[in-house]
Amino acid sequence: MEDQINNADRGIESIFQNGIDQQLFANTIGLPSRMYTLGVSFYCANGMSSWCFSRQGELYSNTFPSYHDFLLFFRLGGCLDYALEQAGNIRLPMLLTDPLDLVWIAEWAYEDDSPFLLFVCGPVFSTRSSVKNVEESLWRLEVSQKLRKNLIEKLEIVPVLSQSTIIQYAKMLHYFMTGMSVDIGGIHYQPSKSAIMSRDEDMSKLTDSNPEQSRALEKVALQMVREGNVFGLGAAEKLANYDAYGTGDPKRDGKDSLIIFAALCARAAMDGGLAPKVAKQVETHYIKIIEKSPKLTDLLNLKSMILEDFTTRVRATHETPEISPAMRECCTYINSHLRDSLELSDIARAMGYAEYYLTKKFYKETGMRLADYIKGARIEQAKIMLMSSMTVQAISDELQFSSRSFFSKVFKSVVGMSPAEYRAANGKEANEE
Amino acid sequence: MTIKSDVECLDFLSRVKACRGEVIFKSDEGDLLNLKSVLSQYVFATVMERREFISRGEIVCVDEEDYAVLSDFLQ
């Protein structure tokens, strides 16, 4: 022991006096000690952990607090398999990246020209947006907040280092491993896998990389709105692919895209004869819903609804010219205030009519009692909200029903099924039933 | 079908890759994980240690023949 310390002392003294002698460096401080020193240094500096694997990929040691999950990620992402395949082939540091964009620095240690120990540092993220990207991707999965949080909390403890720092650490690893320098060009990169954002199949349904095709489809959709062509809606929904605008925030891109789409539909509806004031109010109504939507998949559903709503309104304008602009405005007012109590006195005041005159005029022109129209409009809105992850109780409260059971009763009387059944029939699992 | 209690996560997911159709893990809390999706695999891996949660869930294979592929892992 004393000899080892003396040798180490002489080695360090020699380094200070004569610069680094590779042989001396390698001989005086054994590989395990060097790796241990490096691992502790990385951990102290940035919380980056170190791992040692055998030639067969068994874990010898690690310094990661919750190593089990990250060992699983290292294997699940194919990084360990890739590193094992490089044993004997690559004598340089490797940068390994998994589908979540977790980065590991790895290098094989050789003894008698045979690889015997895989030293790995990591994981780290190379950008702060990596966890956010994963979080955004998770919104597209049909999983509870608990499961999303479970993964995100694990990723949040991963240190974030700049690309240049990661490269410096890779160079340090190589030096500690071999006593030799390596330049940036010598670092080996695992062949790139597409990031999870683009490889996940859910995303492919949401994006369309062909702008010319998107433009053509958009023209078809807007023409349908202009003509009030409700018969083409089924086809339009298939055509209406999603445009991402590339701010790096998929949800923001999705919302911006849909807001633009709503505005274009509103303009097309005005061209088709819908009162500008009504078109604008409908557009505003949808923009509010878009902004409140938590999921990208909700936005997809909304796109179809916006298209259908404007088209149907234009159609109604063509079919029911006997309904006066004032009563159309009344309908729009109601649809824009479904979350309010919608007292008759409020509606009459907003329209500038006496209550009695308003109810009589509304019935005469539409053949429907005002209260029935409000009930129907609330149920239509509830259908939209049931496509989101809101609970039935929350929807009932939001739409001013006195209780959840009353809401369910009214919903069933209009739609023919309970809110939970409607949600299940439309591909959403009920949250609380 | 449910997942056996002693199943090793990576072995199971590796076998899922060999399935022809989609393989869905459906939890009793309403979560749906398409185990052919990379991101879903990570989510699944993080909950795999919660054996009770996994055992209460159900595996649904879109292609009936895939149940035979996964038979070693299901009960």
Describe the model:
The complex is a heterodimer of chains A (433) and B (75). With 433 residues, chain A is an alpha+beta fold. Helix content of chain A is 62%, strand content 9%. Chain A has 22 helices and 6 strands. Chain A has helices at 2-18, 22-28, 31-46, 67-76, 79-85, 129-138, 145-156, 163-178, 196-199, 201-206, 211-227, 233-239, 250-271, 276-292, 296-319, 325-336, 344-351, 355-366, 370-386, 392-398, 404-415, 419-425; strands at residues 50-54, 59-62, 94-97, 102-111, 114-125, 188-189. In chain A, helix 11 (211-227) packs parallel to helix 13, helix 14 packs antiparallel against helix 15 (296-319) and helix 14 (276-292) runs parallel beside helix 16 (325-336). The longest helix of chain A is centred in the last third of the chain and has 24 residues, at 296-319. Chain A is elongated and about 100 Å long. Chain B has 75 residues and is an alpha+beta fold. In chain B, 39% of the residues lie in helices and 15% in strands. Chain B contains 4 helices and 3 strands; from the N terminus they run H-E-E-H-H-E-H. Chain B has a 3-stranded antiparallel β-sheet with strand order 2-1-3. In chain B, a hairpin with a 5-residue loop joins strand 1 (23-26) and strand 2 (32-34). Chain B is globular, with a radius of gyration of 11 Å. The termini of chain B are close together. Chains A and B meet through helix 4, helix 6 and helix 7 of A and helix 1, strand 2 and helix 2 of B.
- Bin the helical content of chain B: 25-40%
Main beta sheet strand tally, sense and closure of chain A: 6 strands, mixed
Silhouette of chain A: elongated
End-to-end C-alpha gap of chain B: 6 Å
Low-confidence stretches of chain B: none
Instruction: Provide mean pLDDT of chain B, rounded.
Output: 88
Based on Cα principal axes, name the global outline of chain B: globular
Q: Largest interface here, residues on each chain?
A: A-B, 29 and 22 residues
Seen as an oligomer or otherwise, the chain set is: heterodimer
Secondary structure: helix percent of chain A: 55-70%
